[in-house]
Structure prediction request, 659 residues.
Amino acid sequence: METMSPLERALRGLALTLVVVFFMFPIFWIFLMSFQTNETILAIPPSVIFTPTLSNYAALITGKLQTAAGTLDIAFMSNLGNSIFLSVASVAVSLVLGVPAAYAFARHKFRGSEDIAFTLLSFRFAPPLLVLLPLTQYFQWLGLSNTYFGLIWVYQLICLPLILWIVRGYFEDISADVEYAYRIAGHSWFATFRKIALPLAGPGIAAAGLLAFIFAWNNFVFALVLASADKQPVTVGALAFVTSSGIQYGQIAAAIVLSVTPTLALALYAQRYLVEGLSLGAVKG
Amino acid sequence: MTDTALLIKDVDKFYGPVDYGVHAVKKLNMDVRKGEIIALLGSSGCGKTSTLRMIAGFEAVSRGTISLAGREVQTLPPVRRNVAMAFEGYSLYPPLTVRENIAFALKASKLSQNVVDEKVAGIAKLLEIEDILGRYPSSISGGQQQRASLGRALIRDANLHLLDEPMGQLEPQLRALLRGRIKHYIRERGLTAILVTHDQTEANALADRIAVMEGGVLQQFDTPQKIKERPANLFTGTFVGEPPMNVFEASVSGSESKVAFGLKDGVRLEYPASDFSHAVRDALVKRQKVVLGIRPYSVRRSADGVTGRVAVNQWLGDQTHIAADFAGGTMVLVEHDRTELDVGQPIGIHLDPSSLHVFDGESGQAISHGQELA
Prediction:
């Protein structure tokens, strides 16, 4: 550790504070907005001093949106439930399919393996709208449009390549000799995969899973086109806040706070596994 | 056949498609008796590690058969071959301590905890790692990791022990100490071991027989002494021995009374015909081009020898290495005493015919060693 003069330390603290404020302020402001009414939000000049109200949260939870024109029904809570279900299920399916595939791509070079891996990656850089149109047609023929099954399937386009490529890198970083040593001590390749490769790549799998979850959670366009109201996640459901009689800023803010919470909780929970991953550098040969 | 521990028959290894990929091991034949210690010696990329990995089952055999204790194993997974292996890259399990890493190898054998503890303690003492048994692999040095990895292989009771560069990371003193202990340990338990190394001192000290490999081809498979005294070809001759054998291209001419070698720069070495046996003489004069080889410690200085000029004179503390410009090349001499010679000074060099190794100029195969045919 280098020694720093008090001045340097102070400047460094200042710089860090600026960065934190820059990135955190919008979130902090939205958090404040979620406890305000539309009137106090739109007041000029804006003020951080107001009487907090829980009416925004109450409206979201009861599903009754109060507007100038009267009461509107919104399905925010069921949208939130859809988001959680779709994201969790998609990531789970992707992990089940992607982790063994990543292991295979990392450990076994077979004919066309690079091509297959690359094709899977190419799902990520094709514009979603490009695949959506034909997909809509197919889904209608197959009777998959507006089903959870169909949505989870489509979400694999988002999650699977991500998990496959990130986890593959982690598997490749594990010295093959560690696995050989385990196998030669009298274990099958499957036991080696379970007992050696999976635990050692654990932090990487956690990181990939978290990232895939965030991507799935934030997806908008697939759900917009392929699902109707009762299957829609929050990203699409949020459109309901733009009503004919104005935009409900307070309720949007409350909705944002609520919809950020699951991802945030997951990230905080996964953090310690991610940090653990950094200390495993010694695995590399 | 019961005392054959390992039999390798006509084994080829290709990386990539068979017959078109990289030909790493070429038609390898080898047999190892039970209780033998074998060293696979060669430079990087000579196929020695590929061979080891095929025996262990980590690399598929492209062609040929490998038998362990009389049973063909080339298609069996590693788990069913009952071999133990120490890896060059240590390969310890990061989440386990050194003690657990070593004991791990015994898990499959279902021994009681007491027996396991006793065995681990014994091997730790042998390898001087008792003080780090409770530490994790990431917190110990490379040399310690290597010894732990070696311990994990040696503790097992396997048909065959494969040791891939087992002491490459150790300091010289420790290496010398462990060499002796490991050899004793292997002998005492009647284990069979194959050790891959590029260090010929290690190969000479540990092995009953050395397999010299180069370019995927087994060059010679013999006792350390035979390999040194009767190298099968030019490669083995120059690869084994430190400093390396001096080699000079030469043409041969012979008459009833003498044998003469014509070297570059007009240097001519003449020997009375009686210095070589009849068979050697016949074999030599049949060839146009040969390569003469002589080990540095067999070269003598003599006033009536051929003149060379001193280029380097180094006293290494226990021996002198002299390099002299000779016949368009360099002749290295080793002497046991400190020698006062200035650079540029002429010296007479004598090559004793009984120390001469003659190799075919085309194929590099040995023709004769001193008086005898190869």
The CA atoms of residues 80 and 160 of chain B lie 13 Å apart. Chain B touches chain A at residues 56-58, 77-79, 81, 83-85, 87-95, 104-105, 107-108, 137-138, 149, 152, 156 (CB under 8 Å). The two ends of chain B are 30 Å apart (CA to CA).
